[in-house]
Amino acid sequence: MEEDQETRLVSEHGLTLLHFAAINQDHGVDIYSHFYNLILDHEDVDGEEPIHYALRKGNYHFAEEMLRLRKAGEDNLLQFFVMHNNLDFAKLVFERDPDLINFVDIHRKSLLHLAAQYADRSMCEWLIGLNLAPDAKSERGSTPMHFAMRNRKHGADLASFFASKVPKFNKKNNLGQTPLHWALRYENLEAATRLLDLGCSIRIITKSMMNLLHFCAENNKLESAKLVNRWNGNLIRNSCQDGMTALHIAAKNGDVEFCEWLIASGVDVLKLDNQVNLFLVNSILDPNLKSQKDG
Questions:
Q1: Shared domain check, 193 and 89
Q2: Exposed, middle or buried, 17 (CB in 10 Å: 0-12/13-18/19+)?
Q3: Same domain for 127 and 156?
Q4: Scanning 40, 42, 117, 167, which has the fewest C-beta atoms within 10 Å of its C-beta?
Q5: Closest by CA position to 81, among listed 106, 115, 122
Q6: How far apart are CA 101 and CA 106, in angstroms?
Q7: Does residue 213 share a domain with residue 157?
């Protein structure tokens, strides 16, 4: 059998040669160096990779080497296990190196920002228990609640969790966007609904007088727009600072489906913006929609 075939053998429990090397504290790294073509992130039947085996065995040097070789963007083992939502292993790393709890990435995101985006409530509770601030701000002024809105699996639950920790949880970041804006931007409709249930205003506007429906049109998020419209059917009539309606914005983006939905939902197709423009459908919409505009 060729050496390459040997190194790719997998046991009935999903174990590779690298899983066994991970628990070899004396020679594990040397084994990988010899069989350099081993798959770093192969999971066993329980979903554990060699890096998990190494850490459980206390083979920290091997685990750190695996992290370095993966080149997945994590700077340290605590960040890795937080982002992979593995609380037990995060605790093992913390016990070894408590100073890692103060890690922030190049965008000034703390481990709690990362947990909000990638993990669940238990991870966030643990990190807050270690004195990470639930209202900490990233480089652009975004809080963990903002990043929780990118978390499709746990975002709605985390919305409730962070709302209980931060009284004014729907604050704007430096771009004028609230967590509700982020939930709509990433079409996390369950999380957006939870925020609205928690009392977030559907009528919030930016400095340019852009409401949430305008925001959805600007970002081509039709499903989010439908949610906003269900909560407040009057926003479709509003114009932002340039006199543009959601229809102007959707037409400018060339989003035909969005334009069709806005027209069917009752937007004013004859409304002019500040440049005395209609909604620019002539060049992007089909003749049927154009005929609706013309009367």
A1: yes
A2: buried
A3: yes
A4: 167
A5: 115
A6: 15
A7: no
> Is the domain of 160 the same as that of 219?
no
Give 130-147 pLDDT, tens digit per residue: 999 999 999 999 999 999
Tell me, what CATH number does 232's domain have?
Answer: 1.25.40.20
R_g (Cα) of the chain, nearest Å: 25
Specify whether 84 is located in the same domain as 114.
yes
* Final residue belonging to a domain, choices 169, 200, 231: 200
| Lookup result for tokens 């459980």 | 56
Pick out the chain residues at pLDDT < 70.
Answer: 1-8, 10-15, 17, 19-23, 26-40, 44-45, 275-295
Q: Which tokens hold the place of 151?
A: 């978390």
Both structure tokens of 107: 């965008």
Q: In sequence order, what are the beta bridge partners of 104?
A: 110
Tens-place pLDDT, residues 245-285: 999 999 889 899 999 999 999 999 888 777 656 555 444 54
Among 122, 61, 44, 111, which Cα is nearest to 86's? 122
